[in-house]
Specification:
The complex is a heterodimer of chains A (about 180) and B (about 140). Chain A has about 180 residues and is of the alpha/beta class. Chain A contains five helices and eight strands. In chain A, strands 1, 2, 3 and 4 form a four-stranded mixed sheet that branches. In chain A, strand 1 and strand 2 form a beta hairpin. The longest helix of chain A is centred in the first third of the chain and has 36 residues. Chain A is rod-shaped. Helices cover about 20% and strands about 40% of the residues of chain B. In chain B, helix 3 links the parallel strand 2 and strand 3. In chain B, helix 2 packs antiparallel against helix 3. The chains are: A alpha/beta (about 180), B alpha+beta (about 140). At the A-B interface, helix 4, helix 5 and strand 7 of A face strand 3 of B.
């Protein structure tokens, strides 16, 4: 039979309770630390990096951008076509959870201009422009007219006026002036 | 020396005539329309003085003199007569010829290269615009 009016029994019971409480709090502490360790593992740099790279990969304009993460600081490298895309890549990565800051080392490389329309327009006018100068030949590339062959000095300005009127990017005169 | 400095005389006259001037570092571009053929001729004269054989390859001078439909234009071939053609192109048949120095009438500017004109015999056809100059 269990009687708590026994003084010794009461002391023993109290001691038992304290031990239990201590073990419990130690257990809670261990659990807390353990859980903390688990949650720290969840936001490793590698995980942040994967998430940031996925965010970049989702946008085809940012396909040339790579991200590395160290101590939650993201560094982005690679090339894009303009400043706006460079800024957009930065804000994309900055918006990824657990990224504390972004170092933007992206290089802007504008795409080469498309001269095909201008080349076609120049080529269309070139035959008429050269008609009176049969010893001159011309080629067109990237808006640049290059002339070869030979031309009399007194006809040169006339030819140059005709070629300049075709609005080229440049005229390269390799013709022999006689 | 920059291109703008090298061709300062040309740049000055261009600015005075409100032409577009763009020095890319590699090529100096001067574009636009001037009031008279004399200004255009003067600019080509300056350009030729600075680069007599046009061998520097560092200028694009695309200057046109102002002209509208109905204006008189002068034939400015070097020595030959100017072909008047049925259509806008050197592959088109020749329907008439205008003498050097003739003053004829511009009907319209078909494009930058070819203008529709009427000669003094009333004949209409297309001439290469570089051989026509507005009379002011």
């Amino acid at each position: 039979m269990y009687r708590i009016n026994n003084y010794n029994d009461t002391i023993n019971l109290k001691l038992e309770n304290m031990k239990l409480l201590r073990s419990l709090s130690i257990l809670i502490m261990i659990l807390t630390i353990g859980l903390g360790a688990v949650s720290c593992k969840k936001v490793s740099d590698a995980d942040i990096q994967n998430e940031a790279q996925a965010a970049l990969n989702a946008n085809p304009d940012l396909s040339g951008v790579m991200v590395t993460v160290l101590n939650k600081v993201a560094t982005i490298t690679g090339t894009v076509e303009d400043e706006a895309t460079k800024s957009y890549a930065e804000s994309t990565v900055a918006g990824v959870e657990n990224v504390v800051s972004v170092v933007n080392e992206i290089v802007v490389v504008p795409p080469p201009p498309d001269y095909s329309a201008l080349d076609n327009a120049i080529n269309a006018g070139l035959a008429d422009a050269l008609k009176d100068h049969p010893k001159v030949t011309a080629t067109v590339q990237d808006g640049v007219i290059t002339i070869n062959g030979e031309i009399r000095e007194r006809d040169l300005q006339t030819l140059m006026e005709k070629l300049n009127a075709l609005n080229p990017v440049q005229i390269v005169n390799n013709a022999t002036v006689k | 020396m920059t291109l703008s400095e090298k061709y300062k005389e040309l740049v000055d006259i261009a600015i005075n005539n409100k032409l577009s001037v763009n020095d890319t570092g590699k090529v100096l571009r001067i574009e636009g329309e001037v009031d008279t053929a004399d200004i255009k001729d003067k600019m080509w004269e300056i350009y030729k003085n600075l680069d007599p054989h046009f061998k520097s390859n560092d200028v694009v001078l695309n200057v046109k003199s102002k002209v509208s439909a109905g204006d008189k234009v002068k034939v400015v071939t070097r020595e030959s007569r100017l072909n008047i053609r049925q259509g806008p192109g050197t592959d088109q048949p020749i329907v008439g010829k205008a003498e050097k120095g003739d003053i004829i009438t511009l009907i319209n500017k078909t494009n930058d290269q070819w203008w529709l004109v009427r000669d003094n015999d009333g004949e209409e056809g297309y001439c290469y615009s570089q051989y026509l100059e507005p009379v002011n």
